[in-house]
Write a structure and sequence with these properties.
The complex is a heterodimer of chains A (114) and B (110). Chain A has strands at residues 3-5, 10-14, 19-21, 24-26, 32-38, 44-50, 56-58, 64-68, 73-78, 87-94, 102-104, 108-113. Chain A is mostly beta strands and 114 residues long. Chain A starts with a strand and ends with a strand. The relative contact order of chain A is 0.33. The mean pLDDT of chain A is 92. Chain B is mainly beta. In chain B, the strands form two sheets. In chain B, strands 2, 4, 5, 6, 9, 10 and 11 form a seven-stranded mixed beta sheet that branches. In chain B, strand 5 and strand 6 (54-57) form a beta hairpin. Chain B is globular. The chains are: A mainly beta (114), B mainly beta (110). Chains A and B meet through strand 6 and strand 11 of A and strand 4, strand 5, strand 9 and strand 10 of B.
C-alpha cells in the first residue's frame, strides 16, 4: 500500500529565510507526487506535481520540489519565505492505477516569524 | 468558475442524528472523493467514485454511505452520527491526477 511520511509536524522560519519541507513516500512503482497548501479555514490548493521527466519541478508561489527516487523523497523548497506562506503543507502520492487514489501525509505546519 | 461546492460549511449534530453532506462539481470530472481531516492525521479517504453509479470504500468508510447518481453530485451520508465523526470533511474531484478540493464542511457531533 502506498504511504507518505512528513517527519516534521511544525517548522518555524524567519521571513526571508530558505525553507525545506521533507516528504518521504512508499510506493512500488514510479509514483505521482504532489504538494498541497492549506491556509486556515480553507480547502487545499495544489502547489506542484510530479509525474515523470525532470526531477526538479516548479510550482506556484515560488515553490519547487525535487524527486529523488533513490531516497524515496519529494522535498519542497522555497529560497525566501514570505509571511503569507504560513500555512499547513501536505505531501501526497497517487497510485498510477486503481482509481488514482490520493494518499496524504500528516502535514507540516509552517510558522513564519517576522 | 464554481469548481467543487460543498454544503453546509458548518454543522452541529446530536449523537444518533443522520445528515447528508452535499458535494457538487461543475468540471465534468469522473472521479470524486470524500476525505476527513483530523489534527495530526492529515486527510484520510472515506469513499470515492470513478463515475456515475460506481462507488468504493477508502481508508475509513465505517459510518458513512455514498451514492453517485450523476456525474456532478457525490453526497456523503452519516447514518447515525457519533462524536468520533467530529471532523472537517473535504470533497474533491479529479481529472487525470490533479484533484480540486471544496472549501470543507466542519462537522461537530455532540
Amino acid at each position: 500500500a502506498q504511504s507518505v511520511t512528513q517527519p516534521d509536524i511544525h517548522i518555524t522560519v524567519s521571513e526571508g529565510a530558505s525553507l525545506e519541507l521533507r516528504c518521504n513516500y512508499s510506493y512500488g512503482a514510479t509514483p505521482y507526487l504532489f504538494w498541497y497548501v492549506q491556509s486556515p479555514g480553507q480547502g487545499l490548493q495544489l502547489l506542484l506535481k510530479y509525474f515523470s521527466g525532470d526531477t526538479l519541478v516548479q510550482g506556484i508561489k515560488g515553490f519547487e520540489a525535487e524527486f529523488k527516487r533513490s531516497q524515496s523523497s519529494f522535498n519542497l523548497r522555497k529560497p525566501s519565505v514570505h509571511w503569507s506562506d504560513a500555512a499547513e503543507y501536505f505531501c501526497a502520492v497517487a497510485s498510477t492505477g486503481g482509481g488514482n487514489k490520493l494518499t496524504f501525509g500528516t502535514g507540516t505546519q509552517l510558522k513564519v516569524e517576522l | 468558475n464554481a469548481g467543487v461546492t460543498q454544503t453546509p460549511k458548518f454543522q452541529v449534530l446530536k449523537t444518533g442524528q443522520s445528515m447528508t453532506l452535499q458535494c457538487a462539481q461543475d468540471m465534468n470530472h469522473e472521479y470524486m472523493s470524500w476525505y476527513r481531516q483530523d489534527p495530526g492525521m492529515g486527510l484520510r479517504l472515506i469513499h470515492y467514485s470513478v463515475g456515475a453509479g460506481i462507488t468504493d470504500q477508502g481508508e475509513v468508510p465505517n459510518g458513512y454511505n455514498v451514492s453517485r447518481s450523476t456525474t456532478e453530485d457525490f453526497p456523503l451520508r452519516l447514518l447515525s452520527a457519533a462524536p468520533s465523526q467530529t471532523s472537517v470533511y473535504f470533497c474533491a474531484s479529479k481529472e487525470n491526477t490533479e484533484a480540486f478540493f471544496g472549501q470543507g464542511t466542519r462537522l461537530t457531533v455532540v
